[in-house]
């Protein structure tokens, strides 16, 4: 008798979820109804809903939401999922920004090294010049290279500051497995 009741309850629960919209449709309908959700938030809500398998009630509520406050009310049962997904998306963006800033610093440093070699060659050209015309031309070249070097130094300093700031804003990513069980083998 107990098995039959369990089966009836499971069928009833499945039937409640059967008419609910998909995660993507629910979020799209809420936007269409007037809930102000940005493109990034739409993706985060949809991904979190699909990953965490939100109930049909939550998806239906989201689909009916016609304002930001309605949507907030719908998300109360799953707000932890939304916050975790938002933090994970921010972490991925911060990591990508930090990598791009680091790559820019590396490219500018390579450019700076090449200019240093050119400046060394220009200094030798000034020292080795035998006439006033050669010396004047070599000095003009040296002056242009020093101006270029100063420009690269300024861009390098700005890029280094940007890379440092991006590194500081990087968020540490903690996998769901570690959040669920901090004592798991890969979470030590």
Break the fold down into its secondary structure elements and pairings:
Blueprint: H1 2-18, H2 23-32, H3 39-52, H4 56-64, H5 68-75, H6 79-128, H7 132-169, H8 176-180
Helix pairs in contact: 2-3, 2-4, 3-6, 4-5, 6-7
Protein architecture, described:
This protein is mainly alpha-helical and 188 residues long. Helix content is 80%, strand content 0%. The protein has two domains: 2-66, no CATH class; 94-175. The longest helix has 50 residues, at 79-128. It starts with a helix and ends in an 8-residue tail after the last helix.
Radius of gyration, Cα only, in angstroms? Answer: 30 Å
Mean pLDDT: 82
> How many domains make up the coordinates?
2
Total number of helices: 8
User: Which structural class do you get from the secondary structure elements?
Assistant: mainly alpha
| Low-pLDDT residue intervals, each spanning 5 or more residues | 5-16
Q: Give the biggest beta sheet.
A: none
